[in-house]
Specification:
70% of the residues lie in helices and 9% in strands. The protein has 8 helices and 3 strands, in the order H-E-H-H-E-E-H-H-H-H-H. A hairpin with a 5-residue loop joins strand 2 and strand 3.
Length: 181
């Protein structure tokens, strides 16, 4: 997941390492990613040709290293984003990262991601209902299960809206490409 976050945050253009680790950390829910996570990954990306680095002068006379995504890196990111199976479907973070990058993905990939997450949430809701009926979990246990089922239903509603919106955007772009307005 860190790999995807780092590559995705290079889509907007060149950025120096410190700003990148702060940006990715914020998205991941931390003040910043640790240097021991960020810089080894960036070195690996540079070695694979997915990212290029360039030294530039900093504002106070120091030298900064700026990282930018190569076309090979963009292709790798898109390929990895498209790898969305049952394991990724269970992860809210993996799903939300991909939704945030839907504009870069093709229609088939987007549809697959939405379908996989929809299937997972439907199965989760059924399992929670079964659990609620099979176990004596008390008042607060039932409250937790009710809340989890409500979360699943809310996300299923959000997915339906995403699906509708993605379809509208795809149709509009297709029609604009044909010269229709």
């Amino acid at each position: 997941m860190n790999d995807l976050l780092l590559l995705a945050n290079l889509l907007d253009g060149p950025i120096h390492g410190y700003a990148l680790k702060k940006q990715v950390g914020l998205i991941a829910g931390n003040p910043a990613m640790h240097n021991n996570l960020v810089y080894p990954v960036l070195r690996r990306f540079v070695a694979k040709g997915w990212v290029k680095q360039k030294k530039v002068p900093g504002q106070r006379g120091q030298t900064r290293v700026v990282y930018s995504l190569t076309s090979a890196g963009r292709a790798e990111l898109l390929q990895r984003l498209g790898e969305f199976g049952p394991e990724e479907a269970r992860s809210p973070d993996a799903f939300q990262l991909r939704v945030g990058l839907f504009e870069f993905l093709d229609e088939t990939t987007r549809d697959n991601i939405l379908a996989q997450r929809r299937d997972y949430l439907g199965q989760r809701e059924k399992k929670l209902t079964n659990l609620q009926g099979q176990l004596e979990i008390g008042h607060y246990g039932n409250e937790v299960i009710r809340f989890l089922k409500q979360q699943a239903r809310a996300e299923l509603g959000w997915i339906a809206n995403l699906d509708d919106r993605a379809t509208q955007i795809f149709r509009r772009k297709r029609d604009e490409g044909k010269g229709l307005r």
